[in-house]
Amino acid sequence: MGQPQKDPVRLKALYSLLKADQRYAEGAEKLLQAAMAEHKPEQLQEETAVRLYKDVLSGSVTRIEQFEGCPFSHFLRYGLQLKKREEFDIEAMDIGNLYHRSLDLVFRMAASGHREIGEIDDASLMKICDEAVALTTRDYHDRIMESSARSRYIAGRVQKITRRTVWALKQQLLQGGFRTLGTEMPFRYREAQLDLHGVIDRVDCCETEDRVLVKVIDYKSGSTRFDIKLVRNGLQLQLVTYMDMALQLAGSRYPERSKVEPAGMFYYHISDPVIDYKLLNTVEDTEHKRLDALRLEGAVSEDAAAVLHMDKTLPLAPGSVITAKELRGSAVIQSAGACLLSGEGFEELMQSTRERMQEDADRILHGEIRVQPYRSGSKTRCDYCEYHSVCGFGDQLPGFSYRKII
């Protein structure tokens, strides 16, 4: 059976009866307003937008990603500066910060002895790791990591997973010829209406006879996955911008080299993967499976010579162009979903990212505040938006719609 048909005459009569009764008049009016409601897009006056944001947008690349995710959420966060009330507790963001700070400190402590982490024996490296985590957790937010049993448990987890991460990063470096140029490397992108700053988690370089190859790694403690569709639609701009800035940093560090080229830009997912014990026979099997689960994910050069400098065990011909199939045997790079790019492909992506950020800055300063979250497959910007109760978005309501990423 189909849905019952609405009878406008009966509905009008019912509304009249309710409206005439003082007990229900106010509720009837609200119901009528809700039934007739339709969202109409709004726009700030340009003068108002400039007063809110100034005439040059400052912040991080994440700000532009938030605008692409939903212009209205950007307006609430950066225009009205609405934030959740701060609580004295450990959140996911804090745990991510602890990992980032600990890993940075491990690399810096190793560098202070003029060594790469790949040059340090496992026992000594784990001591450095434990010291770095202890220093990080002890001083974090007025010793919040010592404030409760839960916080102390989290600190223990951070230590365990940081150990696992440092071990995996060491194995990945040993597979190739890259050396770490720097960690937590600050950058500033200044162009027209934009003044963006940030830090690159790690930049590795490989100096060959005729060029310098650059690899960028962004540590992720969450579920972010590299998706070229999201990159091209402005929702994953960080990694591309990091590569753009890293090439400039490497160029200044190697001024005698005329060619500084991208080898790959990757996410490393900080985790302690669970391995199915039924698939294991030896300790070596366990390590192999763990390393396989912790491979780098992202965009990689299709130049086989560049890839061989990241993973020398691959059976590749140095002058060839590789395919995703040939990456399957890599212990460093995840082949599933890998995005292979030529040198021109990297440059096109960086150029389109620069142009998109400039266009977004122009839209923001012209007052765009549409309520239009993105949808990509089953994922939407609303899934993790803290402003949903403010905008009242619902794609079934008249005037609302998603920005669909295809």
DSSP helix count?
A: 15
**Strand residue content:** 15-25%
What does the average pLDDT come to? 89
Estimated radius of gyration? 26 Å
The largest sheet is: 7 strands, mixed
**Helix content bin:** 40-55%
Distance between the termini: 35 Å
Order of helices and strands: HHHEHHHHHEEEHHEHEHHEHEEHE
The global form is globular
Note poorly predicted spans: none
Number of strands: 10
The secondary-structure class comes to alpha/beta
Summarize the topology.
Layout: H1 8-20, H2 25-36, H3 46-53, E1 57-59, H4 61-69, H5 71-79, H6 92-112, H7 122-139, H8 149-174, E2 179-191, E3 194-207, E4 212-220, H9 228-232, H10 238-253, E5 260-269, H11 283-293, E6 297-301, H12 304-308, H13 324-327, E7 339-341, H14 343-365, E8 374-376, E9 379-380, H15 388-391, E10 403-404
Structure description:
- The chain is an alpha/beta fold and 406 residues long.
- Helix content is 45%, strand content 16%.
- The protein contains 15 helices and ten strands.
- Strands 1, 2, 3, 4, 5, 6 and 7 form a seven-stranded mixed sheet that branches. The protein has a three-stranded mixed sheet with strand order 9-8-10, with no helix packed on it.
- A hairpin with a 2-residue loop joins strand 2 (179-191) and strand 3 (194-207).
- Helix 1 packs antiparallel against helix 2, helix 6 crosses helix 7 and helix 10 packs across helix 14.
- It is globular and about 85 Å long.
